[in-house]
Specification:
mainly alpha; two-stranded parallel ribbon; two-stranded parallel sheet; about 100 residues; 5 helices
Length: about 100
Amino acid sequence: MTTNYVLVETCALVQNRFGMRAIKVFQEDIVPVLRIEWIDKAVHHAAMQVVIAAPRKKLSLVDCVSYETMRLLGVTTAFTLDKHFKEQGFICLPA
């Protein structure tokens, strides 16, 4: 499971590092097997409020949207190397 916000962030990263051919592979081979949660106005607003209220500048809107979505769906484990997910109480893989 992922969100459309993560897809946007991933596409930008893949395009920047690997080019358009990699974007095509990502879109055709990886995206179809993902469960995508499309973020609505309420989740976006809740995540944005966390970003604005946070005392640190390294907290991204995409991460906050992920936290909010995971909590709403009861997801407890994240595939991530981002330490912030562990700080938020999620189980991170790889450990």
